Predict the structure.
Amino acid sequence: MQKIMVCIKRVVDYNVRIRVKPDGSGVMLDGVKMSVNPFDEIALEESLRIKERGTNIEVVAVSIGIADTQQQLRTALAMGADRAILVQTDAPVEPLTAAQTFLALAKKENPDLIFLGKQAIDDDANQTGQMLAAIWERPQATYASKVEISGSKASVTREVDAGLETIEVDLPAVVTVDLRLNEPRYVKLPDIMKAKKKPLDVTSLEALGVSAGVLLKTIKTEPPANRQKGVMVKDVAELVDILKKKGLI
Amino acid sequence: MHKVLIVGEHDGKALNPATAKCVACASGIPDAETTIVLLGADTSGVAAQAAAIAGVKSVLRVDRPENEHSLAAIFAPQLAALAADFTHVFGPSTSFGKDLMPRVAALLGAPQVSDLMAVEGAYRFRRPTYAGNAIVTVEADPARKLIATVRVASFEAAKSGGNAAVESRSISVPLPTHTRYVGAKSGSTDRPDLQTAKRVVSGGRALGSAENFKLLFSLADKIGAAVGASRAAVDAGYAPNEMQVGQTGKIISPDIYIAVGISGAIQHLTGIKDARTIVAINKDGEAPIFEVADVGLVGDLFQIVPELERLVG
């Protein structure tokens, strides 16, 4: 194990209340707090823990997005990544384009492992890791809740609908991480200062030979239908009465 | 004419009910013909179940020893080869489908609509983003194949009574050996499956311990319900991960959802907003769960739940 690549996405912060623009053209992003996608933070944390257990393992954080995405890569460097690469673009990036971009980086960097979050909390697509594994022609271990590396293999426990499943994959491989894999570390001030000196390279889709295709056009964005506010009951008897009348119990 | 291929989910014995929901979704595509494909070591039993879903034209069985466990790296190349004869390839938005379908899409260079919740045309769909806070309408190019995972909570299962032709297929594509199944651990339970249950009782952090979840199991058994949990309860170790309901857990649509000691974080509400009736029991009258609940009761769950169990008999 020599190198881990971890893919991170700049997204609207987990705590922001999302509002849809009245004209249906998208959600309001002006002045909204942006963060590292929480699942990607877990992916980075896992990379760092593997690095800390081993020797001479390099962790490279990569991202695709607007120039400001450097902020999220600096956060990754402050957490402990060794260097970062931003593929800068103003174009919207679909999962397949993201996968093609990460593939181009993987071919340059030759990582033993690529970590990603299982999904980004903005588009909730849950596609990029699987797509990357497909076109890289390498194994995928999605929804990881435990990752054990031994030599050229990884044993990954996955959170699936029925419970937990364990698979073994040959490296290099793509691992996408679930919530309970670890708890990401807090960034300390000296680390933020140190991160400013770490290398952050900026490249472009064109330089990597990737064209940002639009395979799915977004026609409109709407708020979800609201549920009607219901009734409050004063005791269990009244609750049971309502449920019986509705034929629910 | 559109030809929809549905990837059936099964465990070798039973067809997952999500498959019939995918069929219902496909029936919304204009002028469509629906085929179910089953990959496995021996799919004879589940093929009969798939053939009985109304509206299915044919069922394809792809039986080979390598297909015993559903590994995306093994299934995807076979499905990508099979997709040549189809315009759409759908799978359920379960951990099986979410793992597998993007790998198929990438092999085909095709886009995927994740969590498809409504069909507006053969290439126009609605899907949730931002934990369900923004619903987008997307349109794809008919020149490409369209891959989707179907948000099962959005569709009523297609009825039974069908009589589709069953056919065995062999697909000769090289399969990788770099991914191997080791084993699985699941909480075996006699209770209904959380994802398809008509009644669900669910607990949050206010339960306080795994031990206290027994209160909910007891109530659930009395009314024939499945038991779920909030992320906070799972993170705290009160309940196993397969019980988690919400944005990153299971999205469910029971007839009745009883939320006990769940405050109602937006990520949790995402998982339950298709429930017909939501009942909330919480000691905090200001909890956001009451904003979406059809019936709310403020009070101590440790008194309310046992009393509820007594009175529903």
